[in-house]
Amino acid sequence: LPEADVLWRPEVKSSGIGWHLGHQAAVNHFMIRNLLDAEVSLNPAFDALFDSANPEANRGELPSLADIVAYRDTVAERTHARIESILKGERSAAKQLAHVLGPILLGIIHHEYQHDCWIGEMREALGHGAPPAVLSKRVQQVDGYWVLPLT
């Protein structure tokens, strides 16, 4: 999508695609960073901006798309590193952490999906068409929504 479409928001009482992209990463980092070492915030200003408690009226001045993408990439790298360290047994209480990790990751995936659905609707409204279909055997469609089953 063009940066202008990502940073645009339909009205003052709503959030643009860029906010949703940043919010996904902020929630992911919050959930994972507190799982191990209570890692210091990557960007306190982004934490505040992309917090769902931040009223929609305050979500208009977004950083550049490049900054949002860089933030998402950093969060993804940190998330993968933390997951790997748990699964490789490099952390104390690794078995307990691995047990807790599954539900946390499931929550993150469902949260991402919730926002991805909205982003897809906005893409279509802006004339960019629907995003590509889900290509995974691990997810299934229930009542028109893609879900990741617990079993």
Automatic annotation (TrEMBL):
Boundaries of every DinB-like domain copy: 1-116
Protein name: DinB-like domain-containing protein
Native source organism of the sequence: Candidatus Entotheonella gemina
Species lineage: Bacteria, Pseudomonadati, Nitrospinota/Tectimicrobiota group, Candidatus Tectimicrobiota, Candidatus Entotheonellia
